[in-house]
Specification:
Elements (H helix, E strand, L loop, with lengths): L7 H36 L22 H12 L8
């Protein structure tokens, strides 16, 4: 049974893959940690949303979808967002 041997190009490729994996893990940890902390803050009622929400425009692009639009439009119009058009 032969021992695993790698040439220089394979070692470089494996090293790069390892570095990219570590970078990706750090990114995901940071992202999900921020989401977790925000949810924890909201759950503990420590978050204060004093800013007024900006107005939002809802744009629906359809073509030959009259039946589907009749089904979906009432749900869109029943939003509880403060300012939308």
């Amino acid at each position: 049974m032969e021992a695993l041997t790698f040439n220089t190009a394979e070692l470089i490729a494996l090293s790069m893959a390892g570095v990219l994996l570590v970078i990706q893990l750090i990114y995901y940890f940071g992202l999900y940690n921020r989401i977790h902390l925000r949810n924890k803050t909201i759950r503990n009622e420590e978050a204060h949303f004093s800013r007024e929400l900006p107005p939002v425009s809802v744009i629906i692009c359809t073509r030959n979808e009259a039946d589907n639009l009749r089904k979906v439009l009432p749900a869109i119009l029943e939003q509880d967002y403060p300012q939308f058009e």
